[in-house]
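Standup notes, protein team

Yesterday: finished cleaning the Tetragonisca angustula set.
Today: Complex III subunit 9 structure.
Blockers: none.

Input for Complex III subunit 9:
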Amino acid sequence: MANFLYNVLFKRSSTFTVTILVGCFIFERGLDVITDKIFEQVNQGKLWKHIKHQYET
């Protein structure tokens, strides 16, 4: 398995670079979603989307 990954993803500089970029993109999106969920949970009832019904007519 490790030999397969090396030959497919890490052997050439171009595929290594693409692998790193794709990995960074996926990590960034995942981290963004997780931190947004934590922020909304910690601030439940304080954010505009939670209280706007009180101020709209």
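Follow-up from PR in the comments: The radius of gyration is 21 Å.
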